[in-house]
Structure formats: C-alpha cells, structure tokens
Design a protein that fits this description.
A hairpin with a 4-residue loop joins β6 and β7. The two termini are 67 Å apart. Strands 5-6-7-9-8 form a five-stranded mixed barrel. It has three domains: 123 residues, NusA, N-terminal domain (N Utilization Substance Protein A, Chain:P, domain 4), CATH 3.30.1480; 65 residues, Beta Barrel (OB fold (Dihydrolipoamide Acetyltransferase, E2P)); 208 residues, 2-Layer Sandwich (GMP Synthetase, Chain A, domain 3). It has twelve helices and 17 strands. It has 409 residues and is α+β, with helices and mostly antiparallel strands.
Length: 409
Amino acid sequence: MSAELLHALEQLEKERGINKDILVEAIEQALISAYKRNFGSAQNVEVVIDRTTGDVRVFTHKTIVGEVTDPATELSIEQAKRFGADFEIGDIVEVEVTPRKFGRIAAQTAKQVVMQRIREAERGIIYDEFANKEEDIVSGIISRFDRKNVIIDLGRAEAILPPGEQTPGEKYNVHDRIKVYVINVKKTNKNPQIYVSRTHPGLVKRLLELEVPEIADGTVEIKNIAREAGSRTKIAIHSRNENVDPVGACVGQKGSRIRAIVDELRGEMIDVIKWSSNPEEFIASSLSPAKVVQVDLDEEAKVARVIVPDFQLSLAIGKEGQNARLAAKLTGWKIDIKSESQFRSQIESQLFHPGALSGQEEGDAAYDDAEVPDEADIQMSAAENTEANAVAEDSDYDNETVTADDENL
C-alpha cells in the first residue's frame, strides 16, 4: 500500500461513487485473511491501514502467561515488560507482527479487492438505475435471441423480453430498435436481470405521456385502458380543464400525436374515448366505432343492455367479440348487446307470451371482462393498468371518440 494507492481510491470515489473508507475497510478485512493464510490462521490479528500514508501494519493480541505454550497467542511476563512495566498475568497485549514482505501481499490483495468492489458497485449502480425505471419505458436494440427470449441491448445492461410478454404477430429482428416497458428488475450475483414487456398496458400509457403534453402535465387524465396487444386498445380519457378537449389533445393536428404511438405499436388499433361519469354515456362511447341507440342499466347486477341499429350489430360486437369485450373491460360493466330488430322481437314476445322469454334471447350477445384474458384489472391503478389504441384524423372524430389504425392515419 502507498499514498498513491490512497489517492487512486479517492479518484475512484469521485468517478465511480465508491466510498473510499468502505474500500479501505474491505482491504483491511481481506489482508487479515491473507495474513492468516500465509502466516498462521490461529492468530487473532488486526490490520490497520494509515489513511494518510497508506502504510500497512498488522497487530495481534497476546495473553500474558506464566509459561508460554503457544507463542502465536501467548506472551511471558518478561516479554511483556518490553511494552510496559504495569502488565500482569492474564492481561492482553497488542503486539505488532507485520511481516517484512507483507507490502507485496498487501498490494496484490488491495488490487483484487478494488477490482471486485468496482464490479459490485457497477452492478449496484446498474440495478438502481433500472429499478428506478420499473413501470417506465426504455429503448434498446435487439442484440440476439436466447431460446424464445428476445435479448435487448440497453447500453449498460441487457433486458429480457420473454415469450409471454411478446406481442402476438410482432416480428423481432436483430439490430431493430425497440421500446419496451420495464416490468421487473431482479438483483443477482452477476448483472441484474431486467424483464420487459411489449404487451403490458403500461407501455401504451407511457407512450401517451411521452407524446401528449396534456397527459404528461396532468391536464388530461387516463381513466381506464383495455388492451388486447397487437390488435386493439381502448382508452378512456378525461380533461380536468373544460377548455381542453381530451380526445383532440390525444389525437393532435391531423393525428400527428398519435401516429408515433400507432407506429411504435406496429399498427395496433386505438380507440380514444371521452370518459363520462354518466355510465350510459360512457358505455355508449366505449362501443365506438359503433353507434348506440339506447343503454339500459341494471345497477344491482351491473349489467348494461345496449341497443344498436341492425346494421351496426356486428360492428358493436367486433371480430370474435373483441369490441364488446374491450368495452366491458374498459367500463367495468357486463354488456348485453341487441340489435333494434332483436329488441322489438323480444318486446313483442313478452307482450304476446308473458313469461316466455326472460333475460337473453337467442342471437343476443353478452360480454363482460371475465371473458377477456386477465391482462389487467378493469379498475386501473395509475402505475399498473394501462393500455391504448390508435387514433384518427381530425375529420374522423366527434369530440367524444376516435378510432384509428395505420390506414386512417
């Protein structure tokens, strides 16, 4: 050890944030092990490094005895007189036992400890950096594939995109730049494991916050999101400022703000819906792009019976029931959809055959969030549940809802 090494440790503290005193203490502990390994494990030794000069001294504690049987741990009363005249049998004396060639051992040990602590510190810094990015977006480049996992280079670390977090239908190619949502960061003995997602609702929420200033500053609030990744997302938004149109804010002029989100999600459709505290209005809007004629609520059962024009029935239900599923998930209501002709037929049947029909008749469609894979809870927490879908040009929206995909952007 030397003053130069201490200076190097000070520089390391400034550049890497590794506390110099902690490093010196770690070197002292490592030197104790090195001493015992080279000069006798039975001794109770202490290593002290001078914080100014860098000098290393080794001390052991010996017990004063009448007759020495173990020179490594015992000292006679005559020998103890060299350290003072007031010692008695049974006293403990601190004796310096620094070997002549201990400086070389100290230098090697110090180097090993410093390198180990640098690696540990770097791992800790990387862990802290990405742990603070949980539930946030990071950008990286696809570097390789490990079995079915996609490995993404984030610069100082690598992220793992597991199969279950990959969007159905998306193709991932080496060297592609990609944005992902950090779902979990695990500390390990090596580098931290960073797990990311392309399907998590939070990805859409964060993308909206990046692209829409009114969302980022809290003027426009994301109330709920329902998403089937890779296909369609519905997002309910609300403006805290009556002078700010939330749908228009999200869409931007000619769809400029939402276009980047649609592109990043590789064409995933997005329905931007104006949230309402009135359940009938909210449910009607949630079934966009279909137009709703009537909404009747069963508050106790939390069922909404929705009437749509005959030619809008398939649009309201959506392909494989997707539009209705997402609407149910977004609103938290089970939705029973009927066309106008189905509704008239049911009323006529009840008039002429009382009690013949009750509830849902053949051909009706009822949907609730339980029929959707549980990607997220309907009652979205700001940190957990978020999903989104694309938007449309200004001419396509009516200040209540907007639906968009690649074709109409």
